[in-house]
Amino acid sequence: MSTDTIVKLPDQATARMPKVSYLNKEHGILSWLLTGDHKRIAMLYLISLTFFFFIGGAMAGLIRLELLTPQSDLMAMDTYNKVFTMHGVIMIFFFLVPSVPATLGNFLIPMMIGAKDLALPKINLLSWYLYMAGGALALYAMITGGVDTGWTFTTPLSTHYVNTNVITTGLAAFIAGFSSIFTGLNFIVTIHRMRAPGMTWFRLPLYVWSHYAASVLMVLGTPVVAIAIVLVALERTIGIGVFDPTKGGDPLLFQHLFWFYSHPAVYIMILPGMGVVSEVVSTFSRKRVFGYTAVAFSSVAIAIFGFFVWAHHMYIMGLSNYSALLFSLLTMLVAVPSAIKIFNWAFTLYKGSITFETPMLYAFGFMGLFTIGGLTGVFLGVSGTDIHLTETYFIVAHFHFVMVGGMLMAFLAGIHFWWPKMTGRMYPEKISQLAAVTTFIGFNFTFFPQFMLGMLGMPRRYASYPAEFQILNVFSTAGASVLGVGYLLPVLYLVWSLKYGAIAGNNPWQATGLEWQTQSPPLTENFEKLPIVDHDAYDYEWLERQNQIQASEVSSVR
Amino acid sequence: MSHISPVIWQFLVKWMTNFAIIPPEASKIASEMDALLFFMTLVSLFGLTVVIILLVTFSSLYSRERHPVAEQIEGSTLLEATWTIIPLGLFLVMFVWGATIYFRVFTPPPNAMKIYVVGKQWMWKAEHPGGQHEINALHVPTGQPVELILISQDVFHSFSVPAFRVKREAIPGRYNTVWFEATAPGTYHLFCTQYCGTAHSVMGGDVVVQTPEDYQKWLAQSTSGTSLAQNGERIFSSLSCAACHNDRPDARGPNLANVYGAKLPLANGRTAVVDDEFLRNAILNPSQHLTEGYAPIMPTYQGQISEEGIISLIEYIKNLDSNYRIQQTMTTPDLLPESHGKAAPAAQGVK
Ligand SMILES: [Cu+2]
Ligand SMILES: [Cu+2]
After folding, report:
1. Helix (H) or strand (E) holding B206
2. How far is CA A74 from CA A479, A535, B308, in A?
3. CA B270 centroid distance within chain
C-alpha cells in the first residue's frame, strides 16, 4: 500500500485558524442550546450520538461476556433479555437511524448545495430536542427496571405478557421517530428549495441524492411505526384488541405494521452511509464517481422497492405461500441496486490516482463488509433458505455486517473525512489508520463466527446455549474486545486533535464539493458570497482551474 | 508448542476436531436445502472475490505513486448493464430454487401423520393422536411424513429443528403447519427461536428420531390410555355440546358427523372448507361464520377450553361418522390398555 498522500495543508508555521467561524461566532452554553445553525446542531447531535453509542456498546459488551460460557451465569436470564433489548433499542433508534443524517447530513447538506442553512432551522433544533427527550426517556426506562420485549416489541409478548417498561420505551422510540421525521422533512424541503443557482439535480453530489432517498423513507415510514407503537400502548392499557386473537384481532398485523417501517429503516440507516462512501471514494481516487446517474437512481430505486419487501421478515410466521413468493421476488429486485453501487465504486478506482488515508480505509472496509452483508441478505430473502437461517445467529451476523460493518464504517469514514471541515484541524493520520485496521479485524472476528453459529442453528436472543456452540462464541467475544478498542481510539485522538491537530485550511483533501470551497471551520452563514455552480459534481478539472486562478491572483497581488 | 498457552492449544484442538459448518442432515429436505445453501455460498464467494480482486488490483495499479494523474471516465452503459443483469439473473435462480423448497416445506402431503404441538411460555407440548403427550420432546419415526400442526397458547414461539432444516412459528389464534420426513435415527436439538420472554433460551429439548419399530414401542410405552379423540368426546359431553349437536331430528345445531373436510354453505352465501382452522373458529367465534339455515345461538367457548382441549375436540369431530360415539380408528388401538391381549379390530366402539 502506498504511503503517498493528497493532503495539502497550509504552512503550519504561518497558518492560523479563521478568526470568525460558526464555532466562535457566539459564546456561552445558551448560544449552543438555542442555536438555529445547522452546523452547531450537527455538533450537538454528534456529541449526544457518541454518548448513546457507547451506552449501546457497553450493552453489547455485556452480551458478549455472558455468551462466553454456555450457561447463563453472568446475569439472570431476565437481565440478559433486558440487556439485549436495550442494546437494540439504543443502537437502532438513538444511534443508527440518526447517525449520518443528523450529524454529517445536518452539517453538510446545506453546504453541499450552496445554502446558508436548512430550510427550517427551528424545526431542526426541535428535532434535536425531541431526540434528547426520547433518549432521556429511554435511559429512564432502562434505569427504572428496563424492558425485555426485544427491540421488535413483538405482540402479544409486549402487550400482555411482560410487565416491564414497555410503554416508556415505546414512547421514547415514538418521540425519536418524530425527530427523524422532522430531519427528513427538513432535508427534502431544503434540497428542493435551497439549491444555489446552477446547482441542478444532476449536479448534486451523490451524498445529497442518498440523503434525499433516505429522507423520503423517514417521512413515509416512521409514522407507520409510530402508529404501531401507539396501538401497542393502547392494547396494553385499555385492551383495544387489534392484535389480540381472543378479541378478534390479528397478531400478525403488528408484524406487518412494524416491518413496514423497519425494513425501510435499514435503508434509512444504510443509504446515507452509501452517500459518504461515494464522496470518499471519489475524493481519494481523484475521479468522478463511475456511472453517476446509475448510482443516483439506485438510491431512488432502493427507496421505492424498499417499501415493498417487508414481509420477508415473516416467511415462517404463516404467510400464504404465494405472498411469500411475491415478497421474495421483490427482495431479489431490491438487492440489485446495492450490487450496482458496489461495482460502480470499485470502477471509480479504475484509472484513478488513489491514496489511502483513513477515510478511504474505512470506505474500503465498508465495501468489503457491505458486500458480505448484502450477499448474506440474499440468503434470508430467498424464501427457502430463510426457513433454516431466520431467527438464528446468521441473521444477527447479517445485519451487523450491514449496520456495523457497513453503516458504522461509513460513519467513521465520514467523521474522519469531514473532521477538518467541522473543526478546522486534522486528525492524526497514523493512529487513525491503525484504528481503521483494528476495527476491520475486530469486526470480522466478532461477526464472522456468528454466520457459522447461525448455519449450525444457534438461535438468537439466547442467554444460554448448547455447549457445542461455545468455541465460536469465544471467538466472537474475543473479536468484540478488539472491536471495542477500535472504537475507543477515535474518541481519544479526535478529542486530542481539537487542540493539537494540524491546521487544515479550506480544502486539505483537494475535494470538489462546495463545502470544501469555504473556510474550515465555516462561517455561520457558510459562504462569504453564495456560490454559483457551473460544473458537475466531482469535476476535478474544474478544481484544478480554480486553483490556478487563485494562484495567479495571489501572484498578481504580489 | 509448549510456548502456546495450553488453554488456547486445547481450545484449538477441540475446535478442529469438532469442526462443523452445518448441522447433521436428518430429514429428506435437509440435503436439498444444503444443496441450495452450497450453491448460494459458492456464488457469494465468487461475487465477494470479484469485488476484492477489483479493489485490490485497481488499488495497486492506480495508486497515486504508479498513476499520478487520474483519467476521468464518465461510466459505461455496457458495464452497467453487465453488473445489473448478471447479479439479477443469479438472484432469480436462487429465488426460484428457494421457492420450490419453501413450497415443499409448507405443503404437507396428504398421507402425513399428524401431531399437534402447542407452544406456551416456556415449553413445547406435543399431542399425538393416540393420546401420547410429550413436553419439550418430540418422538417421530423415520420414513414417514410427519405434519406438525402448531399453535401457541400465549405469545409467538418458533419450532425449530436445525437438523431437519425446518422451522415454523407457533402463533396464538391460528394453526400453522409444517412437515418433514426424518431419515436418520438420533437425537437432535429442538429450539424455540422466536423470542418469547424470560426462559426463551431454555424453551426446547430433543427431537428423537426412531426406526418405525422403536417408534411403535415408544408409542406403546407412552400412551396415556385415552386417545385425543376420546378425550374430545369427554369434553364434548362435559361442555354439553351434545345438547344442540346430536343426530336427533329436532337438534338445534347441525349434525357434526362427516363435517370435517366437507364444503359447508354459510349464511353469508359463501362456502367454507371445514378444516382444523375452521373448526377452531366455529367453537371460539361461532358468530363469525354462521352455517346456512341455523340461528346464531351457539355460545362462544372463548376462554373455557385450553388449546389442548380444542385440539381434542377437533380430533373428535374429525373422527365422527354417524352415532356421536367416537369410532376408535387410531393407528394404535391395540396398544391401549383396555385392549391389551385382544386382536386389534379395525374399528372398535369405545364406552
Ligand atoms: Cu427487511
Ligand atoms: Cu418460545
Report:
1. strand B204-210
2. 19, 60, 37
3. 30
**Helices and strands in chain A, H and E counts:** 18, 0
For residue A335, which phi and psi values (nearest 5 degrees)?
-75, -25
At the top level of CATH, the class of B113-222 is mainly beta
Q: Which of A469, A334, A313 is nearest to A390 (CA)?
A: A313
- Which ligand approaches the C-alpha of residue B202 most closely? 2
CB atoms closer than 10 angstroms to residue A393: 30
The CA distance from A50 to A46, in Å, is: 6
C-alpha cell recorded at residue B12:
484449538
CA distance A87 to chain B (A): 15
- CATH of the structural domain B228-347, one choice from 3.10.180.10, 3.40.350.10, 1.10.760.10, 1.10.287.3510: 1.10.760.10
- Residue in B36, B71, B154 nearest the CB of A161: B154
- Closest chain A residue to B70, measured at CA: A352
Q: Looking at the partner chain, which of A157, A286, A317 has a beta carbon nearest the beta carbon of B197? A: A157
pTM of the model: 0.91
Rg of chain B, C-alpha, whole Å: 28
Q: In Å, what is the CA distance from A97 to each residue of A88, A196, A275, B207, B280?
A: 12, 28, 15, 41, 43
- How many A from CA of A324 to the centre of ligand 1? 13
- ipTM of predicted assembly, 2 dp: 0.92
Give the torsion sign (CA, A115, A117, A120, A124): positive
Question: Edge-to-edge strands of the sheet including B113-120?
Answer: B133-135, B123-127, B113-120, B146-152, B176-180
**Span B44-73, pLDDT tens digits:** 999 999 999 999 999 999 998 888 888 888
Distance CA A531, CA B16 (A): 63
Nearest ligand, CA of residue B171?
A: 2
Contact between A47 and A549 under an 8 Å Cβ cutoff? The reply is no
Q: CB pairs below 8 Å between A and B: how many?
A: 298
Which CATH number describes the domain made up of A3-557?
1.20.210.10
Residue A30 CB coordination number (10 Å): 9
- Selecting from B11, B162, B302 the residue whose C-beta is nearest the C-beta of A456 gives B162
Q: Provide CB contacts within 8 A for A109, sequence distance 6+.
A: A38, A118, A187, A190, A191, A208, A211
pLDDT digits (tens, 9 = 90+) for B266-306: 888 888 899 999 999 899 988 888 888 888 889 888 888 99
Cβ–Cβ of B156/A461 closer than 8 Å?
no
What chain B residue is nearest to A451 in terms of C-alpha separation?
B21
Residue whose C-alpha cell is 418469547: B196
CA atoms of A213 and A302, how far apart (whole Å): 8
Could you tell me the residue ranges of all domains in chain B?
A: 6-61+77-105, 113-222, 228-347
- Is the peptide bond prior to A521 cis by the omega test (within 30 degrees of 0)? yes
